[in-house]
Write a structure and sequence with these properties.
By secondary structure, this protein is mostly helical. Helices cover about 80% and strands about 0% of the residues. It starts with a helix and ends with a helix.
Amino acid sequence: FLVVFSAAMAYLWATNRNVDTLTIWLLSIGGFFITGSSNIFNQIIERESDKLMKRTANRPLAAERMPVSEALILALILGISGICILSQINSICTVLGGGAMCFYICIYTPLKKITRLAVLPGALAGSLPVIIGYAAATGTISREVMFLFLIQFIWQFPHTWSIAWLLNDDYNRAGIKLLPANGKNKKSAMIIVLSTFLIIPLGLLLYMYESAGIHVTWMLAIAGIIMLIFASRLFFLRTDRSALGLMLSCFAYLPFILIILVAEKFL
């Protein structure tokens, strides 16, 4: 949902009220198919690991309710269809959509068991939808959208790490390395705080380069500060409850900033 929502909102942000209904439908459906395909390939690759984790043990492939061959066919149909649908918009959307899928499947998924740096390609894949949405509206990639991309890119870190904190025991059983340091410790919490802090100055860049008004910039800053408060709480308490608070604030932050940025353009 967040992937498709990000792309659609970035499209609306770039259109300046000149919304083409067909384009936004193609963008949303193509993005939905590519995301679905990526998630299915992920579950094919990680089906043995999924059996070891409580959160994923009941997935169709892990629980052996669905054969791998059927999942593979479905993933290919969705992936190819999604790229073909995006190709009806423009070549930038096609290349970035396919690139995001490849990053997620071929780099992020296998790296999760090798290095904690896997979060980097994962964040890249998860942030490309805003560029795809912007390119769907303008046919270009501008400095303006790169600032929005950077906000979503940095947002991925506290978002991913707060989830990894909550699921640390599950991930350890499956050999998945996602926390920034080795375990739920002070070092991991400090890195999470620092990554969360970076969101605040990135929001100010939109105002500095005339991509957002002063009132929206204040709201971006306040939203970033609220996230930082939750991240700081995790640093001082280092409990699952404080990690849950950060995770929920991350879930609220991204839709909120996208909605207010679009609202500023339309109101």
